[in-house]
Amino acid sequence: MIIGRKAANFIRLCLSYIVLVALAVAAIYPALWILLASFRPGKSLYSKTLIPETFTLAHYKELFTSPVYMFGTWYGNTLKIAVFSMLIGVVLTLLTSYALSRFRFRSRKTTMSTLLILGMFPGFMSMIAIYLLLKEFNLLDTHLALIIVYAAGAPLGGTLIAKGFLDTIPRSLDEAARIDGASNFGIFTRIILPLSRPMITYIALTLFVGPWVDFIFAKLILRTKENWTVAVGMWDMVNTMQNSNFTLFAAGAVLISVPIMILFAFLQRLLVDGLTAGASKG
Amino acid sequence: MQRHKARAGILSAIFMGLGQIYNRQFIKGLMFIAVEAVALIYFISNLGRAFWGITTLGESPSRLEKVKGIAKMVPGDHSIVILIESLITLLFFVLFLIIWYMNIRDAYKIGAERENGRPSNTFKQSVRYILDYKFAQSFLLLPGMGILFFTIMPIIFMIMLAFTNYAAPNHIPPAKLVDWVGFETFRNLLVLKSWSHTFYGVLTWTIIWAVLSTVTTYFGGMLVALLISQKGIRFKGMWRMLLIIPYAIPQMISLLLMRNLFNGQFGPINQYLGYFGLGGLPWLTDPFWAKVTVIVVNMWVGIPVSMLLIMGVLTTIPRDMYEAAEVDGATNYQKFRIVTLPMILFSTAPTLIMQFAGNINNFNAIFLLTGGNPVNGNYQYAGSTDLLVTWLYKLTLDQNKNNMASAIGIILFIIVAGFSLYNYRRTKSFQEEDMIQ
């Protein structure tokens, strides 16, 4: 009886490990494949083996030196836009969620519902209007335009999650500080900010990643090639070449993914806290 | 007994700030006067044109005119630019009316205070009052402005577009004018055979897609989470780290990458199938297989998030519940069905519903992977895997059928927003949030 149970347990664990290994392979394989493809000589998508026979850095070199792909410039542009829209967006989101979490005022619930509904709107329906608006203010083809639009949109996506998180910070802390004479603003900077680090990380990371992957809106706004972001550049590369230079695409993809993956790895702990705390309270 | 409040109110109504000055609040009064002065200058030159613009949408198209015997192109009214300019002016006007109303109320209230013998606040005191009691509202002002101009204004604009005939080939400015047509666009979309066939077809697939993609990622994630957190599994951190990788790769990259992996001719997947002596499958080019592919790929992208979420929930399930179940002689399966599953479902239900709503609008998954293709000959500008959201993208940016796209956008919006609002209003964090503290 006891042996039977042990055997069953053993079989269960073995099966679990097999499934886990299969899943892990499925999860890693595409990433590994594109990484190795970026070191493969030649241009073709097809390769006999997963691991190339010789390794080359030519594709990376081409990205940065070729006059057609201004990858270095695009990289700088994207980094700039991502950092600034992240900073402004985080501030706006925190302001909104702090106000909604800590203060009781008329039309508060309406504000929350409105935020939720507005976030549901298909984004590029509003693209034409934003395009025309930016044209009115002569902001087309500028990075400032992208920063403004990304930052202004940030509270829509993050507020409700951030508010859910802030709700879990005990109100007694605020009250204690208030008795000690802290102002509303003081409570915000000295108590709320330090305690909501996981949340800030989560929001900041989502905002930071945005400009690296948004190719639709950025493409509409940024007209000249020197101003493009990497996402626009990559999209253009895929569209114009149609698999004819796959290895170059692979190199670009690796360059975009690596910094983001490093950030994810470093911030994993905080990220998971932020994600679950915001979500489990619904 | 003086009648300060009526006097201050009326003065403020006549010209903003006068009431405040009457109440001896000079700095505040001057600020209001400045606002009104700027507003007057702006509205005198713009407001009339805004009302004209929004009712007529322009009256003269571009035309050729003979100037000294040479035909010249004379630019006419660009209906869409006129529409958005009018809209912006009218939005400013509404903001102005709100400030105007607040200014009257403020003058009236302070007048009333003075009648009761209290001196009016100095400027410093007013600022303190705002920081202490109107903090939330002033905090929300900045994000609110951004949302007003970059979200609400565009939405109003596009709702208006649905009621115009702004579409290729006959009504594209600046060559032609655009006009209001009422509900004609909606009628065409829902009743006219050529459009309605595509609409209902795409709508059906959108709903199938949303259900399948949500269910597969959710239960897939649950399965993985349960596998990892089983008793006896070692290196839990490592497994989680490995399985989280698809989540860390930017979606745009991973989807474009998948498109190449599933490439029918050269892609590695068909290549491997070939090694096993199996024929390659038309992953992205056959209507049925394309649908299978998008769902499988979406699982790859979506499972890690669900896994993280559910692992978070699993740690919160009290251990004594399982112990109690063991005492009653429950098997592993029974423990799962009676304890684990209900607990997970209970705490992730809101997220699940939000994921469903998000999947209805999942643009990237379809657009980057198949682009809505393979083409479906029976559809108007839509392919077999097109969702409503990618279809309307094609209608706007490729086909210039802007009014039709707006109408679809509105319908889509009503479905998704209604769904998520209903869901959100029922969640704990909305209803009983004050009980948590």
TrEMBL record, chain A:
TM ranges are: 12-36, 81-100, 112-132, 144-162, 246-267
Task: Give the matching PROSITE patterns.
Answer: ABC_TM1 (PS50928)
Topology relative to the lipid bilayer, per the entry, is: Multi-pass membrane protein
Specify where it is mainly localized: membrane
CDD domains in the record, alphabetically? TM_PBP2 (cd06261)
Compartments, as annotated in UniProt: Cell membrane
Q: Which InterPro entries match?
A: BP-dep_ABC_trans_perm (IPR050901), MetI-like (IPR000515), MetI-like_sf (IPR035906)
Sorted keywords for this record are: Cell membrane, Membrane, Transmembrane, Transmembrane helix, Transport
The cross-references to Gene3D superfamilies, in alphabetical order and at most eight, read: MetI-like (1.10.3720.10)
Superkingdom of this entry's organism?
Bacteria
- ABC transmembrane type-1 domain segment(s): 75-267
User: Does the record bear Protein biosynthesis in its keywords?
Assistant: no
Annotated family: Belongs to the binding-protein-dependent transport system permease family.
Its protein name is Arabinogalactan oligomer/maltooligosaccharide transport system permease protein
Whose protein is this, by species?
A: Paenibacillus silagei
Its lineage opens with: Bacteria, Bacillati, Bacillota, Bacilli, Bacillales
UniProtKB/TrEMBL annotation, chain B:
The answer to whether keyword Hydrolase applies is no
Q: Which domain of life is it from?
A: Bacteria
- List each copy of the ABC transmembrane type-1 domain by range: 203-423
Pfam family membership, one: BPD_transp_1
Q: Which residue spans traverse the membrane? A: 30-52, 80-101, 139-163, 202-229, 241-262, 288-317, 338-358, 404-422
Q: Which UniProt keywords apply?
A: Cell membrane, Membrane, Sugar transport, Transmembrane, Transmembrane helix, Transport
Report the subcellular localization: Cell membrane
Task: Give the InterPro entries listed for this entry.
Answer: MetI-like, MetI-like_sf
Signal sequence region: none
Question: How is the protein disposed in the membrane?
Answer: Multi-pass membrane protein
The family assignment reads: Belongs to the binding-protein-dependent transport system permease family. MalFG subfamily.
Q: What does this protein do?
A: Part of the ABC transporter complex MalEFGK involved in maltose/maltodextrin import. Probably responsible for the translocation of the substrate across the membrane.
Q: What is this protein called?
A: Maltose/maltodextrin transport system permease protein
Q: Which organism is it from?
A: Paenibacillus silagei
